[in-house]
Amino acid sequence: MTKILLDIKDLIVYFYTEEGIVKALEDVGFSIKKGETLGLVGETGCGKSTTASTIMYLLPPTARVLKGEIVFKGKDLLKLSENEINEIRGREIAMVYQDPMTSLNPVLTVEDQIAEVLIYHFTMAKKEVKERAINLLKDVDIPAPERVIRMYPHELSGGMKQRVMIAMALAGNPDLLILDEPTTALDVTVQAQFLNLIEKLQEKYGISILWITHDLTVIAEMADMVVVMYAGYVVEYTDVTSLFKNSLHPYTSLLLKAVPRIGTRVNDLEIIPGVVPNLLYPPSGCRFHPRCPSVKSICKKQKPPLMEVENNHFVACHLYNEN
To answer: CA 302, CA 132: separation in Å to the nearest integer?
Structure first.
């Protein structure tokens, strides 16, 4: 049996703001096995990036983790000291953000930015750092890496910046790579190249990936397991084949029907009525009930638990609650 690398249990995160308490995550839980890719999907504001920030221990001062565990390689990250987290962040767990232009330092060369990771986590001579930086750029298919390491971010294309970010993330030889909407700013051609690159790197480095996106077509191609989130909690959790062939939650079904397909006219696409609720004032019961076409009276009063409805297929919906 493949060993579990990351195991999140009953995670609750609130933001305490001037406007009130934002109930960002409610009882979020899933696991990632070694060498596996897990897709985390949902609309903007559903809690995907907050989940990633909690794993990375990069929440803003207004945030509080009220409950839960984030067990990584047998250690609960939420119980570690700041120094212990700093040793893990960037080395054992690395993250790539959707906008490399705001993530890269505009006044440092590519070499300097990769060197920061290498020097912090490893004892390396300057010559070794340069050689390692060049090899990392080769791994992410950047041409003429000896020239590129001397360049600044503004001299690179969007696709090149994203590849530099991947190289920086791989510099620490991480076990887990978190990709937060990494293809959002890329055009279709560059996106396809990026997906192929990630597959190649995952095979070479043997890393696990948490892939955060709203793009279900990317998930269909890249993920092994999928977690669907809505308004701060998990509504469906299963393998990628089961999700696309037999989605069980009404929200997931509506998301899939809204995906454009070849030969489909825009007017034929279904839309999900309404908007994601304001988590300062989330709906009672199931948070999806104001938009759900299958809503029942119990949905407005009681939050459905995440249940295993079929083999390894978990759903939080009263349609499957026999009680």
So the answer is: 55
Three-state secondary structure call for residue 117: helix
Tokens of 281: 């004032």
pLDDT tens-digit profile of 96-145?
987 777 789 999 999 999 999 898 888 888 889 999 999 999 999 999 99
CATH architecture of 4-92+174-320: 3-Layer(aba) Sandwich (3.40)
Rounded Cα distance between 28 and 21, Å, is 18
DSSP assigned state of 47? S
What's the whole-model pTM score?
Answer: 0.93
Q: What is the chain's Cα-based Rg?
A: 21
- Going by C-alpha positions, the residue among 100, 89, 27, 19 that lies closest to residue 59 is 89
Can you give the residue ranges of every domain in the chain?
4-92+174-320
Residues in CB range of 256: below 8 A, 6 or more apart: 216, 244, 247
